[in-house]
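Now for one protein, fold included:
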Amino acid sequence: MSLPKEIDDSVVRKNWPIVKYSVSPCEGYLSTHYILRSEESSSIFLKRFLIEQSSERLLLSQTALATHCAKFVTEGQGARCDLYFHTPRIIPTINESLFVTNESRNESLVAYQVVDGRVLHDWLELDGARKYGDIIAKSVGTLVGRLDVSCQDWKAPNTSRVLKGFESEAVAVSGLTLDSLDDRISCWDLRLSMQHFDKIDVIPLGETRSLIERGFNVFKDRLIPLYKDAEARNSINVQEGCLRRSWVHGDAHDCNLIVREKKNSTMDFNSATLSSLSSDDLSLIDWDDLSYSYLIHNPVVSLAYLILWAVSNTTLTSDEKMKTAKEIGTSFFHGYCSAMPLLESEIKVVVPLLIARLSTSLFMSTKSAAAAEKDKDRVNYILVHQEGARKTLEWLLDGGEELEGVLSRAWNEAAITASIERKSCVSSYKAYTSLSVEQATLSRDIITELVQLKKEDAFGFVIDIPDGGVKPLVSSTPLGSVAQERCWESEKETTGTVESAWVRSPPFVNEWSGKGSSGSILSSIVGSEPARLAAFTEMSNAPLVFVDGRGKVIQARLGWGRYMENRVIYQSDLFLSEAEPRSLHLGVDLGALEGTIIRAPLDGVIHSWARNNSDLDYGPTIILKHTLPSGNEVYTLFGHLSLDSLFDENGVCTVKVGGVIKKGEIIARVGGGTVNGGWPPHLHFQLMTEKNCGDWRGDFPGVCSPSHRSAYEVLTPDPNIILQCPFIEKIGWQ
């Protein structure tokens, strides 16, 4: 299929680097959009906006916030497993613009990454999908909660008044009109419900119109007074009873959530697949309805369509519908509040807002379908929720008061559980001078079992150990020495036990303590600034590599950064902020070239991940949880990884929390200095025995204060129990 005449091929090629593409249409509410697929360049999803549909300032806000959210979860504060969600990145034009406006054709164009998969709506239509309603609702709630976290305090570009709030009560409620939409307001903003009511005459008389009128009357009688009261409280900064303001996506329903296809695997399109659904499997699309409004509007939109799907089944009795709505609400709030807690005042407006959203949906679909009656495909898209919205709205209007109590209890139950989970995702360095008897006993039992497993040769390689072949020119420097001078054998495949591989290729043991001449050297090169990092990397790599006859750099041996070494290299605020600076290294650093393969040393599951972005921090990390034969759990941390250990080229997280990992399986690669926190390429490998990993996610202290050594020797035992290098002395409680 060729592009429609409204879009000139030259416009596409002029603005985006795409060649030899095929075209597939995608119906939207007001326009047809197109997927341009190319085997020779990146494919794009080309979204079209009529200029009167989306002002340039609103479009700038939409595209800028979509870009912000996509970066927030891969590069910013949200780049950790408990805040991650996926939304496709906008592909800027060759001139680095987020969109192209063609006034002669009265439209603007935005190019997004293509997300392969099916919309959630298609999955919900499958037989048997309803029995996974709690899983689906929690997954959607989790994504929307994380989305709302990413939108907090975001400032729209090129507008000075966007975040000044609603300047008056009139603007907040009655003075807002469809004819005065500015750069902050979408026609789907729930605050506009009464403006739709004023245009009710476009809907023919009948049951549908009667339902819409009843719904808008609920808005007038219940929500307008609540809005006024909330604004009065907001104006004097009283949180109790307020409705918080935020940028609101406003359209995160089942037709704008894609269940992504996994790379290099086939996803069975049947309801059983939904049994393992998580928020990480979903991708949020369509930023067209962005508004600066009340935060509670965002979860309400998603919840409205989940309840619509769950209770519009005609075979359910009224009691069964109420029970189903509670289950959906509890699971949704559980997911949402695990990221973004809601206030009691916000919960009080949920049911009238559900009624307002479904009334608006029914009004807009009826009006728009009539306007697009000659375009069958678009009419089908517009009407996708109409029948369900009608049935659900009727049920809500008749049983709304009971549902308010049900959802309030559901929120209360979910909020308690979510609060515990949320607190467990944010931890800080613990200044342990001693451990509880329970923790000390548990840790020592785990260490004893690990030592026994080592004797049984139960552990596999953490990192491939090179066989050398050619000895590096430098065998010792002021910053370390070879563990044991031995003759290098001819290059051959690494076989046998882990210990025998070390015997064939002893590591270069680094000296990072700053003793002697190394102190002044280190103080001059440690740092993430490009010049310092380059010097540090060159010095670190010198004993480990050689250059072959063709100029290729070959890894000859691994570096070894010692466990419990008291180091001078920790000079950033990350380590100096404690009352007693942290300087004792709690892991082993394995120096290796960027891209070196990292493996799981024993069976386990993925516990968590994060991209720790502070200067001289871990960079990308993965933590595995291993259940030992006794049933006790030990955790392994892999730090300073490559970015592609966490995300693919489209920003999709490829690490699934809870995913099963087998001994010897490749889990990551060593990262370079620009992504690993600002260090020479190496793997930080660490063991943790603290119960529940000390409530950490994707992180754990890798350095402790000297006075806390005795506790951390038990909480983070010597990683050489698993690494098994025979040239390194045993340290700690073993």
The first strand starts at residue 21 and ends at 27. The chain has three domains: 1-114, 115-423, 437-723. Residues 159-184, 485-494 have pLDDT under 50 and may be disordered.
